[in-house]
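S1.2 Input.
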Amino acid sequence: MSKPKKVALAYSGGLDTSIIIPWLKENYGCEVVAVCGDIGQGGDELTGLEEKARKTGASEVYVADMREEFVADYLWKMVRAGGEYEHKYLLGTSIARPLLAKRQVEVALQTGCDALAHGCTGKGNDQVRFELTYKALAPHLPVIAPWREWDLVSREDCIKYAAKHNVPIAQTTTKIYSRDRNIWHISHEGGELEDPANGAPDGIWMLTKSPKQAPDKSVDVTIGFEKSRPVSVNGKRALSAVMLLEELNAIGAEAGIGRIDLVENRFVGMKSRGCYETPGGTLIMVAHHELESLTLDKSMAHYKEKLALDYAELVYNGLWFTPLRESLDAFFEKAAETTTGEITLRLYKGGIEPVSRKSPYSLYSLNIASFTMGAEYDQRDARGFINLIGLPIQVRASLNKAQKKTV
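S1.3 Output.
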């Protein structure tokens, strides 16, 4: 690859991307365009971001508010699908990467950049997620991945590099967690968490109260859905998707909801350990599942569960901009046509209990389900049903019995 003249960098202001700006200028002699998306990281992380990027060498800085797009067009699709990786992870980092990479590509094309760069390590999933998006949206632009080129091998090395180049950072050698935050979740990795034998220290959690410290009184929260999209909290329709999620984040965090400690299988072939906090997202996913228990028939519900596993893996692996994801979304959109209603959850010290399920499309019939004999269900019909279903079992048992007699 010939040396590029202008590189668009996916910039977060964290340790890695902060030192990449001077590294690119030092090693490639190029202009650096820093591209950042506001997806709900929080004010502290974005405050002074543009000034910091310019001081460390960026010639242009672009910060876009993408919170509503992130929630409405990415998170809600994942909720509709029931996407959950390895039974625990609600994909908070995974689902954000395609959107951030898309914005980076858009800025690169608008500003005449001839290369793209990111701060993902050569061991992580994010390098795959970013670069698969680049291939889908700008396959002609070469990619620079400093972690696959430079001689820095650890976070400690990066901290030393930052100090040498006068790059301000928040990390220290004694506080070296790698975190990723957006409006859906925050992840914690690194430090003592790298050894799964170590328990997660109390000090790592940032969004949620410890269940032990949560209020001693339970609280009920009602979430309303229209075709699988969350639209209301406690009977009040939200003005925006962002406002709804922020409200549920506050409710869930106060009750100690949404903490997980996970050893996961990375796409690149290794296991990793991380701790995640997803307070509002956990409430939404639980409520959505309870609503589907009313509105989906057995065959649809069970088939959807199978496809949800595929969808979660697809998102985790960075295959968002693919015909397969679009095709799966078409299925989930059809499946969600009747997923409308309200679910009330009771929260207490990290626990969630469903207390009410309502839907105008409920398939639950009290007359049929009741133990009392009703006109809509003749229990005598069950005999023929069981005889037909059990016919292969009966034939095999008779054959086995006959064979034993001849031995």
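S1.4 Remarks. Residues 181-358 form a domain with the Argininosuccinate synthetase, chain A, domain 2 fold (CATH 3.90.1260.10).
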